[in-house]
Specification:
By secondary structure, the protein is an alpha+beta fold. It folds into two domains: 100 residues, Beta Polymerase, domain 2 (2-Layer Sandwich), CATH 3.30.460; 121 residues. Helices cover 58% and strands 10% of the residues. It contains ten helices and four strands; from the N terminus they run αβαβαβααβααααα. Strands 3-2-1-4 form a four-stranded mixed β-sheet. Helix 3 links the parallel strand 2 and strand 3. Helix 6 runs antiparallel to helix 10 and helix 7 packs across helix 9.
Length: 237
C-alpha cells in the first residue's frame, strides 16, 4: 500500500478533518529500499476524538498489514505543543518531508532543542537494551540474528543522524551520509552499519558471513557511539 493510496482512503474516511498528510523518513530522504523499508506518514487533523479515530481504523488496518508503521496522528495545536518533547523526530520530519495533502504545517514548526541531548541518549540506551534482549530471544539462530540486525539497523541509523547534531550543524538527509559524517567526529569504525544495511537491502547475500561475529561488531560499535555521545554530553555540562 502506497502513501498515495493511504491518502485516498483517509480522504474517504474523514475528508473534512484532514489538515495535512506528510511523508517523511527514508522515502522522503531517498533512502527507500523497496520491501525492506517502510513508509512513514504524519497526519494532522482538526480534531482527534473517538469518532475520528474510528473512521481512520479501516485505512490504517490495510496500511499496517502492508508492513508500515501506524501514522503519527496530531491536531495542529498538539503538534506545536510537542516540539519540546519529540525534538529528534520533529527535527527529522521538518528537515526532510514531502507534503502529500493540505498545508505544510511542518516547515513552520519551531523546535525546542533544550531536551535534544537527553532524548538522544535515552533513545540510544533504550534501543541497545532492547537489542540485547532480542538477541537472547534469538537463541543463537543464524537467521533470527540476521533478521534482528536488519530490522534494527534503520532505527540506529536514524538515532545516529540525530546524534550527529551534537557534533555538527550541517546534517545530511540520507542516513548513510550522516553515518559517514558521524564517523569523522568519533573514534570508531562504523563500517559494520554499512555492511548490515547492505544485507538489509539485498546488496550482500551474507551466506559466508559469521553472523554472530557480525552481531558482536554491531553491538560494540553501538556501545562506542553511545560512549561518544555520553562524553559529548558531559563536556557540554
Amino acid at each position: 500500500m502506497t502513501p498515495e493510496k493511504l491518502l485516498e482512503e483517509l480522504k474517504k474516511a474523514c475528508p473534512d478533518k484532514l489538515r495535512s498528510v506528510v511523508l517523511y523518513g527514508s522515502a522522503a530522504a531517498g533512502d527507500y529500499v523497496g520491501k525492506r523499508s517502510d513508509y512513514n506518514v504524519l497526519v494532522v487533523t482538526t480534531e482527534l476524538g473517538r469518532e475520528t479515530l474510528a473512521a481512520f481504523a479501516a485505512p490504517t488496518r490495510a496500511w499496517l498489514k502492508a508492513g508500515n508503521p501506524a501514522p503519527l496522528l496530531f491536531t495542529e495545536e498538539r503538534l506545536r505543543q510537542s516540539t519540546d518533547v519529540f525534538p529528534i523526530e520533529l527535527l527529522d520530519i521538518k528537515e526532510c518531508h514531502r507534503i502529500l495533502h493540505g498545508e505544510d504545517l511542518v516547515s513552520a514548526l519551531e523546535i525546542d532543542t533544550a531536551n535534544l541531548r537527553l532524548e538522544i541518549e535515552h533513545e540510544l540506551r533504550g534501543k541497545l537494551i532492547q537489542l540485547r534482549q532480542r538477541y537472547i530471544a534469538a537463541a543463537g539462530r543464524r537467521r533470527a540474528t540476521r533478521e534482528l540486525m536488519a530490522e534494527s539497523v534503520g532505527t540506529f541509523l536514524v538515532l545516529f543522524r540525530a546524534a550527529l547534531r551534537l557534533f555538527a550543524t550541517d546534517i545530511p538527509a540520507r542516513k548513510l551520509e550522516a553515518l559517514e559524517e558521524l564517523g569523522r567526529h568519533i573514534d570508531c569504525d562504523l563500517g559494520v552499519f554499512r555492511t548490515i544495511n547492505a544485507l538489509k537491502a539485498g546488496e550482500l547475500d551474507g551466506k559466508d558471513m559469521d553472523i554472530d561475529q557480525l552481531f558482536g561488531e554491531y553491538l560494540s560499535a553501538i556501545e562506542a557511539v553511545i560512549d561518544a555521545v555520553d562524553r559529548r554530553l558531559e563536556s557540554a555540562l
